[in-house]
Structure prediction request, 531 residues.
Amino acid sequence: MTNSTGEIRDADFLFVIGSNTTEAHPIIAMEMKRAAHRGAKLVVADPRNIDLTRFSNRHLKLKPGTDVWLLNAMAHVILTEGLVDQAFIEEHTENFEAMREEALKYTPEKAETITGVPAEDIRATAREYATTEKAGIYYTLGITEHTHGTDNVYCLANLVLMTGHLGKPSSGMNPLRGQNNVQGANDSGATPIFYPGYQRVDDPEVHAKYEKAWGMQLSPDPGLNLNEMMKTVGNKIKGMLVMGEDIVLSEPNAQKLEEGLNKIDFLVMQDIFMNETCRYADVIFPAACFAEKEGVFTNSERRVQRVRKAVEPPGQAKADWNIIQDLANACGAEWDYEHPSDVYDELVKHAPRFSGISHQRIEQEGGLQWPCPTTDHPGTDYLHKGGVLRGKGLFQPVSYRPSAELPDDDYTLILSTGRTLYHYNAATQTRREPGPHEKQPGAFIQIHPKDARRRGIGNDDSVVVASRRGSINAKAVLTRDVRRGCVWMPFHFAEARANDLTNDAGDAITGTAEYKVCAVEVRLAEALVTA
Prediction:
């Protein structure tokens, strides 16, 4: 996030797109509701009616996968009505004319035919966003989990730059992280293209710095991203360590992944519970949960916070860093870390954005937001204060590309997947508790009543959902919360894996799979059995 969570309550305009915030980020959603109750305008762009739309001034119910058309049309309005921040553009950005030329092709009237969002709603949203001083954009996986996810993000960045909503409170561009420490994992270099602190592995100076610091030769080439890894399991990838992830539930085209796991030479699982992927494991390391270990987590607003051990881990379970160090030393390394603070000190030593943060300082002062380059730096509540960090904000002209798989005569519906309030990701933890299970005991699929009627489906009927990759059983929930021609289901349930259906086609830049758009058909289970 460019800005802090606490700034949401003071915003005067909130544009929430591709985020079911109340269910995926309920604390942040409370701040959004607080702002709305105070009088801030809230616009939600989502293919479904979600809880947050009850608090919104406007719901842009776009067709899945048409975000580029919607956002470029908003840019068109801002450009043609003279609502740009010309001074900000001239001082802090580059490549504006190239973006302008492309965006002017996307009229709101044409966007209405593509997205299903009325042209006047597009115009009103663009005007309100551009003319409100404290206006922020908030998004999650509904924007990024597409084959054109990077294009979606570029379009949002264009809106921020052309209106100058950057480097000031209660504004900016704010991706809401989906798990408690996914920000920290990325910060520390758990990606195939970065060392700690987002320093590229193919930068010669960075490469040389880390070879010297770590005393070994390092590859100058980026590694495989997650989607590329999953596609090569059992072929190019012969061995794998999976830590804190149930990949046969969370990864797309799961049946193909299982074929690879059946061929893999060696699989190590590291987790706090047995999960579905453990069925393929050769070795399982029992790990400690958050309350059983020391360390730090970094949240969506870049705040590094201490995690303190409350109880000892059970049985043979160990903290992740202990397990990794033992494994490394068994492989011939000579690591001698005595505490997670030693690991963190090494991480920040060569990462300038984090250099002023330490366990000791957090103990004394509380959580700190990076960038925090020196030990006397107070941390950064919002980014780009006084100017864009890279020097100039780069506009990107974006052309619309349709999703990789669209409905046809055999698979006539668009499926999107996501999370619910009661379960968390692969539900490795939440389905072990009676409360969440009672609230949401099994898989379901939301379908519009008119689509259901055409198929002879009633509410609570057992249905089969099929795509080109597989089929699963679920319970039908008839609701106008979804658009006609679209269906939605959660991915939490091992007995009905939504990711047996999803498409593993990936974004050209990030490799992120297209969880949000794939073609499916829904039929009564009894009808298929009879046939």
Remarks:
- The longest helix spans residues 149-163.
- The first strand starts at residue 13 and ends at 17.
- The chain has three domains: 5-176, 178-219+287-378, 413-530.
- The chain is about 30% helix and 20% strand.
